[in-house]
């Protein structure tokens, strides 16, 4: 009953004509952004945040628009994976393994439709689970004091670090750099630190500046370095029909992929990359030697697409209920919420039910909009893929500049953004993940405050940090999350570092 | 190899500077057993440990670009910095056309196409931002048109 | 550095957001959505609706340094602009008293009036053994493990409220009182209901829902009289603790305007306070009436700033 009334509240927000229109626009924009080579959900949403904010949308509207962009970009990313063999973001990586071979065999249309439907199934199942699960997690609110929050943040860094890089030292380094940046400015204590008498730094470094620099500007440098060449050869798309027989055959795959993906997504810090990876590997061993994986097996498209989208939905659970993002894109969404003065966490469900349930209803609607939009319009989106980088990337740069400038009105922030762009390029060269940097900037002051509050309440007794069962469990998970990948890596060699 | 080691060494120096700077933070008197210095110290300690790991067990060397490419990247960054300073006094249209044109040329060295991309992006984005999104951008320097 | 920064913010605000000539401008020193933004938008709208100004009031958001960016802009660039009003609250004067605006002081602008207040309140979890503010004071005196959570930083307004109450109750060593500043009133309540802290200190509007649902019990409000709608909560004064702490919502204007212009603003503000529209806006946002305008308000602010300085020195926020 509670669930139904909550959902009714959500739909009353999401079904207003204006919000619905924003959702459709968001899905469309998102699909385009996702389809463009070099742009994925994270940097796509990142460059849009400042602009959305300047346009004066209220919290719910901005959230609806940008989550629609997020979902749309995940759909769009698959178009470049299948046709160009270029994944828009890391979770789409697994889709290229069988999607591109299918396209080369002249079955590009089939692959696109299968991945579209699989995405829908994955996202839909995840949204249903999110809806059912979220209220229970929200009740944890009263069990989380300073010690529990500190352990939770630690867990976020250790698990995200574990998945984000092949080298734990580099992942830790990235987190620590982010945390260090977060100490700049006047924190909760009112003491100004590391400002060197500079008023610009009094409020600290805006995480939007860091996100746009690290994700969007660094992309420009990467492309200039490769002289704008894209090494892959595009595959032509002739006709798109709906392959009902294939869809029927892969339906079981989609359900399995969705369930695996959702569980992977819920783990704080794991996210969509792990979801698509696990769904693909599980399906491959489920099918066994009868499969044709890696050479154009439709199940090799259906499983990771369902897993990827289900994990994206699952990743919203820890982001909304605990304030801990599970992937680069959810970190960007967390930044969005914090910009809108909404602090995700256990109290969000009681404080701002219209935001949470409006978002959930929007996700349900966005799934249908995307399915309806994508199958007939796939040829339009394919055309967009042909925008040459020489136009696309200068465009991305200018949008980033205008977005940040209109938000903060400060040269200093533009220079910082360029600086983060250079840093992002160096980090990518050195295989240092950038997502933990963002996470550090986002969560740094919360983490420090949690620790300081714990020490205030316990008169400086460190054992207070381990004084509740929840805290102890979180500490154990954090240590395991940091150490386990070192051993797992010896068993499974990842194709490349996952940076989402 | 060398890349990781240099990075580690630079980070150790930065961490030491950070500790030095943290030690001068003014500490308020009301009760907070940790104070504003302890967390920075913890971070700096972590950075030093991670740096040492990078120095002692570096990854295989990344492929760094040749001098010419590096120069192109530095030039792109300089163009962006100049653009950041130009957009306010010179308005949106002219600096955007020039900066976008240069970046476009760097990605695909065909002068005419790059110039057209620059002008197209400048005008197109201006129309988009000003009229579709309602941002108050200034098109040209003050006194030219307003 | 400061000068270029001011010029930059001023010009950016004008070029990016555009300024209509001759209209009244209200600066909200924060991003859209917060209390200052609300003050500017509501007062601006009502001023126009009731005919006190003849053009719509233009609201400019100038976030930064907890209001410090807007403050330095007004002091440095707009010191004689009689068409400028700026949203302010207790946080503004607390920060000025604690020298958080890089050396600028409260006497560099004129505080023209407050037209609403958010009553200070102290609450405990519903199963707490404490029932009155005096129980709380006694517990602290007896050295029990008492801790407070509030929505502002340590040394901020919520923290000072508790210290004022304890001091009025005869607690000498107020530096030893444990206070944690969390992210807003709702979080502070959650920490208190969860048993991590003994009591929560905050503004009434932040916690109305929790009081109504019975999850917390209010030990006292820090107002002159009981708050309409919450008549069963006693004031601190009734309990023998002479403390009034209200988070006022109001405006300041530049220092350099004439007394006539200052008084004209005071009258306009009084007209807003008396309007039915404002009464509705207050009720919808959990605010209580608290009207002080003109030189009355200025001298009240001077007293509050002086008190805050004394208290802040005592706990060591400032030397």
Automatic annotation (TrEMBL), chain A:
- Spell out the coiled coil positions from the record: none
Looking at the record, the residues that make up the DUF112 domain are: 20-439
* Superkingdom assignment: Bacteria
Which segments cross the bilayer? 46-71, 111-137, 149-165, 171-189, 201-224, 259-280, 322-343, 355-373, 380-405, 411-427, 463-487
Q: Which Pfam families match?
A: TctA
Entry keywords, A to Z: Membrane, Transmembrane, Transmembrane helix
This chain belongs to which protein, by name?
Putative tricarboxylic transport membrane protein
Instruction: Name its species.
Output: Silicimonas algicola
The taxonomy runs: Bacteria, Pseudomonadati, Pseudomonadota, Alphaproteobacteria, Rhodobacterales
From TrEMBL, chain B:
Q: Which residues form the DUF1468 domain?
A: 6-136
**Keyword vocabulary terms for this entry:** Membrane, Transmembrane, Transmembrane helix
> A Pfam family name for this chain?
TctB
Q: Which residues cross the membrane?
A: 38-57, 69-87, 112-133
- Per the record's keyword annotation, is Transmembrane included, yes or no? yes
Coiled coil stretches, renumbered: none
Name of this chain's protein: Putative tricarboxylic transport membrane protein
From TrEMBL, chain C:
- The organism's superkingdom is given as Bacteria
| A Pfam family annotated for this UniProt entry | TctC
What does UniProt give as the signal peptide span?
1-23
Against InterPro entries, the record matches this protein to:
BUG, Bug_dom1
Q: Could you list this entry's UniProt keywords, alphabetically sorted.
A: Signal
UniProt similarity note:
Belongs to the UPF0065 (bug) family.
| Listed PANTHER family | TRICARBOXYLATE-BINDING PROTEIN, UPF0065 PROTEIN YFLP
Q: What is this protein called?
A: Putative tricarboxylic transport membrane protein
Q: Which organism is it from?
A: Silicimonas algicola
Tell me the lineage of the source organism: Bacteria, Pseudomonadati, Pseudomonadota, Alphaproteobacteria, Rhodobacterales
């Amino acid at each position: 009953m509670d669930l139904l009334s909550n959902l009714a509240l959500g739909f009353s927000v999401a079904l207003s004509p204006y919000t619905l229109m924003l959702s459709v626009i968001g899905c469309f924009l998102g699909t385009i952004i996702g389809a463009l080579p070099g742009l994925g959900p994270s940097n796509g949403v990142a460059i849009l945040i400042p602009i959305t904010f300047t346009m004066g949308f209220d919290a719910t509207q901005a959230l609806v628009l940008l989550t629609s962009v997020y979902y749309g970009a995940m759909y769009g990313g698959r178009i470049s994976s299948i046709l160009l063999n270029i994944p828009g973001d890391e979770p789409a990586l697994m889709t290229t393994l069988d999607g591109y071979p299918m396209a080369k065999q002249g079955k590009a249309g089939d692959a696109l439709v299968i991945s579209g439907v699989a995405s829908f199934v994955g996202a839909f199942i995840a949204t249903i689970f999110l809806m059912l699960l979220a209220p229970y997690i929200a009740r944890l609110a009263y069990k989380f004091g300073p010690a529990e929050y500190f352990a939770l943040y630690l867990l976020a860094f250790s698990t995200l670090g574990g998945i984000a890089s092949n080298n734990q030292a580099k992942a830790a380094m990235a987190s620590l750099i982010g945390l260090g940046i977060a100490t700049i400015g006047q924190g909760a204590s009112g003491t100004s630190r590391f400002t060197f008498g500079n008023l610009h730094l009094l409020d600290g470094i805006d995480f939007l500046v860091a996100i746009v620099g690290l994700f969007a500007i660094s992309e420009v440098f990467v492309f200039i370095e490769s002289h704008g060449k894209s090494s892959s050869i595009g595959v032509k798309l002739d006709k798109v029909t709906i392959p009902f027989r294939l869809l029927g055959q892969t339906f079981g795959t989609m359900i399995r992929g969705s369930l695996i993906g959702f569980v992977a997504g819920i783990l704080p810090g794991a996210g969509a990359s792990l979801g698509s990876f696990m769904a693909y590997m599980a399906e491959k061993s489920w099918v066994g030697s009868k499969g044709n994986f890696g050479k154009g097996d439709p199940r090799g498209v259906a499983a990771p697409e369902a897993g990827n989208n289900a994990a994206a939905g699952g990743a919203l659970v820890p982001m909304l209920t605990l304030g801990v993002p599970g992937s680069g894109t959810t970190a960007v969404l967390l930044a969005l919420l914090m910009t809108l003065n909404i602090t995700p966490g256990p109290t969000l469900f009681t404080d701002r039910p219209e935001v949470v349930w409006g978002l959930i209803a929007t996700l349900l609607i966005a799934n249908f909009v995307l399915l309806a939009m994508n199958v007939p319009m796939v040829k339009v989106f394919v055309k967009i893929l042909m925008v040459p980088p020489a136009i696309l990337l200068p465009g991305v740069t200018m949008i980033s500049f205008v977005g940040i400038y209109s938000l903060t009105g400060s040269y200093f922030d533009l220079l910082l953004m360029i600086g983060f762009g250079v840093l992002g390029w160096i980090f990518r060269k050195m295989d240092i993940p950038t997502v933990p940097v963002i996470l550090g900037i986002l969560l740094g002051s919360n983490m420090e405050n949690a620790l300081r509050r714990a020490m205030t309440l316990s008169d400086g007794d460190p054992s207070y940090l381990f004084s509740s069962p929840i805290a102890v469990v979180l500490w154990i998970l954090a240590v395991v999350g940091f150490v386990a990948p070192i051993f797992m890596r010896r068993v499974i060699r990842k194709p490349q570092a996952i940076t989402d | 190899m060398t890349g990781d080691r240099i990075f580690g060494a630079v980070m150790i120096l930065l961490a030491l500077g950070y500790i030095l700077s943290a030690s001068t933070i003014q500490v308020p008197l009301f009760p907070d057993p940790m104070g504003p210095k302890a967390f920075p110290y913890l971070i700096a300690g972590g950075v030093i440990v991670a740096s040492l790991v990078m120095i002692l067990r570096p990854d295989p060397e990344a492929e760094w670009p040749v001098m010419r490419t590096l120069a192109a990247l530095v030039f792109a960054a300089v163009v962006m910095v100049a653009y950041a300073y130009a957009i306010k006094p010179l308005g949106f249209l002219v600096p955007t056309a020039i900066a976008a044109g240069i970046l476009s040329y760097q990605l695909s060295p065909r002068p005419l196409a790059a110039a057209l991309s620059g002008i197209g992006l400048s005008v197109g984005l201006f129309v988009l931002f000003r009229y579709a999104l309602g941002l108050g951008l200034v098109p040209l320097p003050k006194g030219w048109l307003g | 550095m400061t000068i270029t920064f001011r010029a930059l913010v001023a010009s950016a605000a004008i070029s990016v957001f555009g300024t209509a000539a001759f209209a009244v401008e209200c600066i909200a020193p924060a991003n859209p959505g917060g209390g200052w933004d609300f003050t500017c938008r509501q007062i601006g709208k009502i001023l126009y609706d009731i005919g006190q100004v003849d053009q719509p009031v233009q609201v400019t958001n100038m976030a930064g340094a907890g209001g410090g960016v807007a403050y330095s802009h007004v002091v440095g660039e707009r010191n004689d602009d009689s068409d400028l009003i700026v949203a302010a609250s207790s946080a503004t004067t607390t920060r000025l008293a604690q020298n958080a605006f890089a050396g600028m002081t409260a006497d560099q602008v004129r505080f023209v009036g407050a037209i609403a207040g958010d009553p200070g309140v102290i609450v405990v979890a519903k199963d707490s053994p404490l029932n009155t503010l005096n129980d709380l004071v006694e517990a602290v005196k007896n050295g029990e493990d008492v801790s407070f959570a509030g929505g502002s930083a340590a040394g901020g307004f919520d923290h000072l409220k508790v210290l004022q109450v304890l001091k009025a109750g005869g607690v000498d060593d107020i530096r030893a009182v444990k206070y944690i500043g969390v992210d807003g009133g709702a979080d502070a309540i959650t920490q208190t209901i969860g048993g991590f802290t003994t009591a929560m200190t905050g503004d009434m509007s932040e916690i109305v829902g929790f009081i109504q649902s019975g999850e917390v019990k209010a030990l006292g409000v820090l107002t002159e009289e009981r708050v309409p709608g919450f008549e069963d909560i006693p004031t601190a004064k009734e309990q023998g603790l002479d403390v009034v702490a209200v988070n006022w919502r109001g405006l300041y204007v530049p220092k350099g305007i004439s007394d006539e212009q200052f008084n004209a603003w005071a009258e306009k503000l009084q007209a807003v306070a008396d309007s039915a529209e404002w009464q509705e806006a207050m009720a919808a946002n959990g605010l209580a009436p608290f009207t002080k305008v003109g030189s009355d308000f200025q001298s009240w602010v001077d007293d509050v700033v002086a008190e805050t300085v004394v208290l802040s020195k005592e706990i060591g926020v400032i030397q």
